Amino acid sequence: MSDDRFLDKVYDLSTTEETRELYDDWSDSYDTEIMENGYATPERVARALAAQVHDLNAPILDYGCGTGISGAALIAAGFTAIDGADLSAEMLMRAREKGVYRDTWQVQPDAELPFAPGKYHAITAIGVIGVGAAPPETLDLLMNALTPGGLFAFSLNDHALADPAFTARLHDWIFEEKAKIMFEEYGEHLPGINLNSTVYVLEKT
Ligand SMILES: C[S@@+](CC[C@H](N)C(=O)[O-])C[C@H]1O[C@@H](n2cnc3c(N)ncnc32)[C@H](O)[C@@H]1O
């Protein structure tokens, strides 16, 4: 088992600045630490999304792309035109080195997204929304960047599932009939630390 130094700290962050700093510091060892703990969610999300799309060549955005592990999983599932965005410049640098993204850009906290709704047929947020990472409103931010028929594929780990602030954002979209759940599955996230996640694919109505 690897040194769990960053995994021990990551679920205790509270501000966007703390999150960005931690991921900048983690960027060198993130892939090793996370893969040694059996990181399963990227492949689960990528497979679930690929089963819902009609055109694997349509542009998609991997929001919170980190070092590009999630982009690599999307490529393995057949997607061909993936852009990546992340809060952390250092994580993005690693992602660019992997060469899995068509384009990448750094997320500026509290800024609007730098593209018009509908640019992407699908958006992913894999291991991104949750305690110690992107806040619950990120779900609204990304759903608002889709046009009707657009897909949002994301995961909530056990920490996020236990916090009503995260599940409430999801329930609002469903109960107000602004989105439909096309796929939902609870399964392994980081088995090395006994953490699971639910993978969702939503379609905007
Ligand atoms: C656990 S990593 C997941 C990275 C990648 N998706 C993967 O599956 O390996 C979480 C990523 O979300 C990014 N992040 C955290 N808060 C964010 C926010 N508000 N907006 C965009 N990215 C954010 C972090 O910088 C980090 O790279």
Q: In words, what does this structure look like?
A:
There is one protein chain. The chain is α/β, with parallel strands linked by helices and 205 residues long. 36% of the residues lie in helices and 22% in strands. The protein is built from nine helices and seven strands, in the order ααααβαβαββαβααββ. It has a seven-stranded mixed beta sheet, sandwiched between helices. α6 (89-98) links the parallel β2 (82-86) and β3 (103-106). α4 (41-50) packs parallel to α5 (69-76). The longest helix has 12 residues, at 164-175. The chain is globular, with a radius of gyration of 15 Å. The model has no long low-confidence stretch (mean pLDDT 94).
Segments where pLDDT lies below 50 for 5+ residues? none
Which ligands occur here?
S-adenosylmethionine
What is the ordering of alpha helices and beta strands? Answer: HHHHEHEHEEHEHHEE
Distance between the termini: 44 Å
Q: SS-based structural class?
A: alpha/beta
Task: Provide the residue-averaged pLDDT.
Answer: 94
Shape, please? Answer: globular
In total, the number of strands is 7
How are strands sequenced across the largest beta sheet? Answer: 3-2-1-4-5-7-6
**Major sheet: size, sense and barrel closure?**
7 strands, mixed
